[in-house]
Write a structure and sequence with these properties.
- The chain is an alpha/beta fold.
- It folds into two domains: 86 residues, 3-Layer(aba) Sandwich (Rossmann fold); 124 residues, NAD(P)-binding Rossmann-like Domain (Rossmann fold).
- The chain has ten helices and eleven strands.
- A six-stranded parallel sheet has the order 1-11-8-7-5-6.
- Helix 7 links the parallel strand 5 and strand 6.
- Helix 6 crosses helix 10.
- The protein is globular, with a radius of gyration of 19 Å.
- The chain binds guanine.
- The site of guanine (GUN) has 8 residues, from strand 4 and helix 6.
Length: 285
């Protein structure tokens, strides 16, 4: 069993982003800028936004966080996004999800300028991903693809089983795997007999937020496991969706939690923001 080390790879990617940021600043006078909207006081969302801000600082980006109260109006968020769309110092816009229930999230995501959509949540970028065109790809699944590439894991013709069908992780993950000619199955909360499906997996990707969902008897020998879950165990430790201790014995490769997919998500946000800044810089020439 070999660990897919997201901590090491994310540091390598950060270093590259940092160097390219310096080059962009020196050659074009442009500092990549990321604006984040954080609504309400969910501690997990606040922690994620804080990690993203610190990562921006490490690579030399400009970043600004707009914190808004939980009872904010739709119009107020929309006005802020319009302001960010029109601000030339902002290359990337990130709206931390979930938004409170009074907010129409779809309308908010559709308002973001697709060229600043570094989370890849705008339907324009979703459409480009599913048709295999270049665009912005959601950071978590993009980070998983970077791990496959780093460890020379070939996806062509592999049976890939994605557990979880969210717009943020499961669906874009499936699209990326399909674009690499994998055979893809998507399982979700209404899937009958999950084990029947997971036993077929050469590569099993799980991101649903259920501790120990995947157990030893649900996977075949030699499986590659990507654990995208982040859960807080009763003892306070961070764990994924896979019973790591027992399942890892059967794996050829597995991502640890923490230190697997998590740090890759942040690294991909940085690389998407740099990509946006480079595109904006070349358009301004
Ligand atoms: N909430 C949970 N994951 C994410 C993510 O990747 N991006 C944003 N914006 N919100 C999230």
């Amino acid at each position: 069993m070999q660990l897919l080390d997201g901590k090491v790879l994310s540091q390598k990617i950060e270093k590259t982003v940092q160097i390219k940021t310096k080059t962009l600043r020196q050659s074009k006078g442009l500092v990549p800028g990321l604006a984040v909207i954080l609504v309400g006081h969910d501690p997990a969302s606040a922690a994620y936004v804080n990690m993203k801000k610190k990562a921006c600082d490490r690579v030399g980006f400009y970043s600004v966080t707009h914190e808004m109260p939980a009872d904010i109006s739709q119009a107020a968020i929309e006005n802020t996004i319009t302001m960010m769309n029109n601000n030339p110092n902002i290359n990337g816009i990130l709206i931390q999800l979930p938004l409170p229930s009074q907010i129409d999230t779809t309308r908010i995501l559709e308002l973001v300028d697709p060229s600043k959509d570094v989370d890849g949540f705008h339907p324009y970028n979703v459409g480009r991903l599913t048709t295999g065109l270049d665009g912005f790809v959601p950071c978590t699944p993009l980070g998983v693809m970077a791990l496959f590439s780093e460890y020379n894991i070939d996806l062509k013709g592999k049976n890939c089983v994605v557990v979880g069908a969210s717009n943020i992780v499961g669906k874009p993950m499936a699209a990326l795997l399909l674009n690499e000619n994998a055979t893809v199955e998507i399982c979700h909360i209404f899937t009958d007999d999950l084990k029947k499906h997971t036993l077929n997996a050469d590569i099993l990707l799980v991101g649903v937020g259920v501790i120990n969902l995947i157990k030893e008897d649900m996977v075949k020998d030699g499986v590659i496991i990507i654990d995208i879950g982040i859960n807080r165990a009763q003892n306070g430790k961070l764990v994924g969706d896979v019973d790591f201790l027992n399942v890892s014995k059967k794996c050829s490769y597995i991502t640890p939690v923490p230190g697997g997919v998590g740090p890759m998500t942040i690294a991909m946000l940085l690389s998407n923001t740099l990509k946006a800044a480079q595109t904006h810089a070349s358009e301004r020439e």
